[in-house]
Specification:
Helix content is about 45%, strand content about 15%. The chain contains 15 helices and twelve strands. It has a five-stranded antiparallel sheet with strand order 8-7-6-5-9. Strands 1, 2, 3 and 4 form a four-stranded mixed sheet that branches. A three-stranded antiparallel sheet has the order 10-12-11, covered by helices on one side. Strand 6 and strand 7 form a beta hairpin. Helix 12 packs across helix 13.
Length: about 450
């Protein structure tokens, strides 16, 4: 009993660290990070180990055709590789295989790639295998091409239903565009199906990607052509004018012959052909002189500054309104617009019906009619008066044009041309335009041309 109590007292007085030293050491080692063990090189080597390592590596290489020409030697666990291999990547592969054999200390890799023609037998055999595979796939390729052809043929048949597309589309240009789009969709769809049948989906992705890049480049290169094509489509839908309309496109004037898929063709008033790109026509300011049958002409006359301009204005307006071809509604007008150097300028305006009266002929008759009426009433229509000032050096110059014994007023009176007392014959002002006849004749003759006229009288003019 006494011995047991003594043992308990001794145990209580002993430090815990002295009792559990191993436990504390193990806990600290567990908390420390674990490092990968470093392979130790033995200070001794078994007899025949080098031969076993060399034999093992040669056996592995014997099973791999690419390493049939590799020479292996081992000394003290150091493997030396020599010889040639057919591909560059086989050099690193041989070193990796040799390094994994047990007992190998390191590998000295002296392998070289064999660049001789005879060494490429594997590549040639691979090419032969591919050719054999291609020959074996020929029936499947023929079937895929046949499917592609059938799908494309269906697309051409559907696109060839011209009557249907012309009924759905507002004009022939848009109908042909729809037909072309249908053909394109069926051709591309058939190609996708054919490539999928032969297992060339990756090739299809590459082709479509390349086509996208090429299409983007062509889009920038052919920007003007594409813009002109789109403008042709928009003009065919808008119909800004009819055939034989007298129009002015920016500064270009003439009568419309036809609107094609590329250009608007005009015949100028002197009978020449004028082709304007549709992209320019689409963005231009267009004046259509034919759209409204009523058209106004105007001209300016200047009366003497000493005369009554208001009386001259009233007389000229009444004279203009009395002409048969001038419309009563809207009525003729006369406006005093400015005071010139030696006259007061009056602008006379009159309206005509272009279906009954030619615009040029009406203006040609109205100007002399108003001028004669003003002169007969005593209004002066003076020419521009200039005041000349001579310096002393030119004061002595003789006036060679002045005849001796005649005054300047007498010379001016002698130069005046007497007015014809007889009344001028009445002219026919009906619209007889030879350009209109030329345009109609050309449109009749051009019915079978490749560039079809996109102007459609069944559609409203914009």
């Amino acid at each position: 009993m006494r011995a047991l109590l003594a043992s308990l007292v001794l145990l209580a007085s002993t430090p815990a660290g002295a009792i559990l030293p191993e436990l504390s050491q193990e806990g600290s080692e567990a908390a420390a990070p674990v490092e990968a063990p470093v392979q130790q090189i033995d200070d001794t080597i078994d007899e025949g180990a080098d031969d076993r390592i060399a034999e093992r590596i040669r056996g592995i290489f014997a099973e791999l055709p690419a390493f049939s020409e590799v020479e292996v030697s081992v000394s003290q666990g150091v493997v030396s590789l020599g010889g040639t291999v057919p591909r560059q990547e086989d050099i690193a592969r041989a070193e990796a295989i040799a390094g994994r054999v047990s007992g190998v200390v390191t590998v000295e890799n002296d392998l070289q790639r064999d660049l001789s023609i005879s060494s490429q037998g594997e590549g040639l055999s691979s090419l032969a295998d591919r050719w054999s595979g291609f020959v074996a796939m020929l029936p499947l390729i023929a079937l895929a091409l046949a499917v592609w052809g059938v799908i494309a043929l269906v697309g051409y048949i559907i696109a060839g239903l011209g009557v249907l597309w012309h009924k759905l589309a507002p004009n022939s240009f848009l109908a042909e565009l729809i037909a072309s789009a249908i053909r394109f969709v069926f051709i591309v769809g058939g190609l996708v199906v054919a490539l999928d049948m032969v297992g060339a989906g990756a090739l299809l992705g590459a082709v479509l990607g390349g086509a996208g890049v090429i299409g983007l480049a062509l889009g920038f290169a052919l920007r003007d052509t594409i813009e002109n094509y789109v403008a042709s489509l928009m003009l065919s839908l808008r119909q800004p004018f009819r055939a034989n309309d007298w129009v002015q496109i920016d500064q270009l004037e003439g009568r419309v012959i036809r609107l094609t898929s590329r250009a608007t063709i005009l015949m100028t008033l002197d009978g020449n052909h004028l082709r304007i790109p549709n992209s320019q026509v689409f963005k231009a300011v267009i004046t259509n002189f034919t759209r409204n049958p009523n058209r106004r002409f105007e001209f300016d006359l200047g009366v003497d500054a000493d005369d009554d301009a208001r009386a001259a204005r009233q007389l000229g307006r009444d004279t203009l309104a009395a002409l048969d071809f001038v419309l009563d509604d809207p009525p003729a007008e006369a406006r005093i617009i400015e005071v010139g150097d030696s006259n007061v300028v009056i602008r006379f305006l009159g309206w005509i019906d272009q279906t009954k009266t030619d615009w040029w002929k009406a203006q040609s008759q109205a100007i002399p009619a108003v001028k004669d009426a003003l002169e007969d009433a005593g209004f002066g229509l003076p020419e521009p008066i200039y005041r000349l000032r001579f310096d002393p050096r030119s004061a002595t110059l003789p006036f060679e044009n002045r005849a001796e014994g005649t005054s300047e007023k007498e010379q001016q009176a002698a130069k005046k041309v007497r007015k014809v007392s007889a009344a001028p014959p009445e002219e026919d002002v009906r619209p007889v335009d030879e350009i209109v006849e030329m345009v109609e004749q050309e449109r009749r003759q051009a019915g079978g041309e490749q560039d079809k006229d996109l102007l459609d009288r069944s559609r409203p003019v914009e």
